[in-house]
């Protein structure tokens, strides 16, 4: 991922008068930044030509009214999506890092009782660190290191019981691990760093589930340490793990034959569902077929770009895997579940919102956030975000935007 300065283009939809019976597209009377598309257009278009190098919104089609949504901030496929946003809500730039550093690339944890969002930069060696956004004055500061334990190469994280848990990818000498950070004193501890003396490949994301008075930490693990941090080659196979801090037990709970490269992970509000994203080689955008430089098509059978749901039982074990969604393009990286069970994911086309059954309701359009050049560059600067009560906080690499929601959609979860 490059740290080159990025051009940011903000688009306001021009007024549009086109109309057709099936695909009518027009501005929402309450929000001139929302472009409505029929959900039918997600699976049926008149003469069309789209490919995975482009946003769905850039698909060339003779369906009238479709292309006018290209640069809109918010794309709706369902009225429920429109109702999530405050009148005329749009992208509000609240912070731009003066040095252009990718401070806002990973994580996205809302500390609901501290009015903060914690984020991480690119989880890459020498670049990655944790930053804290204070939503009361939109200031950003680096996570202090008071006791000599530095959070090394952080990626995802979660907030539970007044403590922040962070996936750290380590480096050659420091094993990948899970950190526990006190957000008041910033005292940091390593709580998990090995499985019977073997290193993890590189924890990616962390979430807590609570049922019947018990709580478990789930984390995903894949070879991020080796890939981004000059770390050691993986010894433990990719897996999703569950830590029970009362029973002092760490168990593998999802095998790599169920999820090959587990990445984003979250539970719903009452911890009856667990959602995990599966992320293949990031160069294989949502497809199983890739074209080589010579133009030859090869079949990359391991790629999937999928979101899976599991049932969580009262003992906190996942079962009943269901394919919940496939990213429109790129991978589904950051994942959050709102109190109504809607699943929000950071994908290459934007921040996509799905209903509890998986219907794509709409998205915050990546083209409106970063501009076409950057979105198509393959670096995917928009991959994580936070749901902070009645605010969507968009982590856009070296910039942070907020979008005002119509009501509080998450209470005390992250
Ligand atoms: C995808 O579409 C764009 C725009 O039409 C085009 O420039 C590009 O060559 C296409 N890529 C492939 C692999 O067809
Ligand atoms: C969207 O923005 C791009 C980049 O400037 C421009 O080429 C395109 O015409 C715009 N699309 C619409 C529908 O306005
Ligand atoms: C777009 O959707 C909103 C919310 O459902 C609605 O108020 C508005 O009339 C819609 N516009 C069109 C043209 O369908
Ligand atoms: C538009 O805003 C009004 C007033 O806030 C609200 O009553 C109405 O439901 C909104 N319409 C839509 C389609 O969201
Ligand atoms: C939204 O913005 C449009 C265009 O600026 C304006 O006409 C309309 O009154 C605004 N609506 C609300 C609910 O603020
Ligand atoms: C980044 O860290 C590696 C060691 O992991 C070191 O070899 C390299 O020189 C560092 N690069 C910079 C730009 O500091
Ligand atoms: C921002 O607000 C926080 C919390 O109220 C405060 O601790 C911090 O000093 C403020 N920062 C600035 C630069 O005002
Ligand atoms: C790993 O990170 C630690 C802490 O920053 C540093 O002291 C050590 O030199 C790094 N190891 C390598 C091989 O870069
Ligand atoms: C969890 O929440 C869902 C949806 O709100 C509800 O249908 C279900 O009964 C709840 N289950 C438990 C065990 O609380």
TrEMBL record:
<feature type="signal peptide">
    <location>
        <begin position="1"/>
        <end position="26"/>
    </location>
</feature>
<protein>
    <recommendedName>
        <fullName>SMP-30/Gluconolactonase/LRE-like region domain-containing protein</fullName>
    </recommendedName>
</protein>
<dbReference type="InterPro" id="IPR052988">
    <property type="entry name" value="Oryzine_lactonohydrolase"/>
</dbReference>
<dbReference type="InterPro" id="IPR011042">
    <property type="entry name" value="6-blade_b-propeller_TolB-like"/>
</dbReference>
<keyword id="KW-0732">Signal</keyword>
């Amino acid at each position: 991922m490059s740290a080159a300065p990025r051009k940011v283009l903000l688009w306001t939809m021009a007024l549009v008068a086109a109309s057709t019976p099936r695909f009518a597209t027009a501005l929402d009377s309450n929000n001139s930044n929302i472009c409505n598309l029929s959900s039918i257009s997600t699976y049926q278009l008149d003469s069309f030509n789209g490919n995975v190098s482009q946003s769905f919104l850039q698909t060339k089609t003779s369906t009238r009214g479709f292309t006018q949504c290209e640069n809109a901030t918010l794309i709706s496929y369902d009225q429920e999506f429109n109702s999530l946003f405050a009148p005329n809500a749009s992208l509000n730039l609240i912070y731009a890092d003066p040095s252009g550093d990718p401070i806002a690339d990973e994580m996205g944890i809302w500390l609901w009782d501290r009015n903060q969002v914690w984020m991480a930069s690119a989880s890459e060696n020498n670049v990655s660190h944790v930053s804290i956004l204070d939503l009361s004055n939109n200031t950003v500061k680096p996570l202090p290191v008071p006791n000599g334990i530095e959070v090394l190469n952080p990626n995802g994280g979660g907030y539970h019981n007044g403590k922040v848990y962070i996936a750290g990818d380590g480096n050659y000498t420091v094993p990948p691990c899970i950190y526990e950070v006190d957000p008041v004193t910033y005292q940091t501890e390593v709580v998990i760093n090995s499985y019977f003396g073997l290193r993890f490949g590189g924890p990616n994301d962390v979430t807590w589930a609570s049922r019947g008075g018990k709580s478990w930490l789930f984390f995903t693990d894949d070879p991020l340490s080796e890939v981004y941090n000059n770390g050691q080659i993986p010894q433990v196979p990719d897996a999703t793990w569950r830590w029970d801090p009362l029973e002092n037990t760490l168990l593998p709970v999802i095998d790599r034959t169920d999820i090959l490269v587990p990445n984003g992970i979250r539970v719903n509000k009452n911890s009856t569902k667990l959602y995990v994203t599966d992320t293949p080689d990031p160069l294989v955008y949502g497809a199983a077929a890739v074209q080589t430089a010579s133009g030859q098509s090869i079949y990359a059978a391991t790629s999937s770009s999928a979101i899976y749901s599991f049932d969580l039982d009262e003992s906190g074990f996942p079962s009943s895997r269901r394919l919940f969604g496939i990213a429109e393009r790129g991978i589904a990286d950051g994942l959050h579940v709102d109190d109504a069970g809607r699943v929000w994911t950071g994908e290459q086309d934007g921040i996509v919102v799905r209903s509890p059954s998986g219907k794509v309701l709409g998205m915050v359009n990546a083209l409106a956030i970063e501009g076409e050049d950057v979105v198509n560059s393959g670096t995917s600067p928009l991959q994580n975000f936070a749901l902070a009560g009645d605010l969507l906080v968009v982590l856009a690499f070296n910039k942070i935007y907020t979008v005002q929601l119509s009501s509080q959609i998450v209470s005390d979860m992250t």
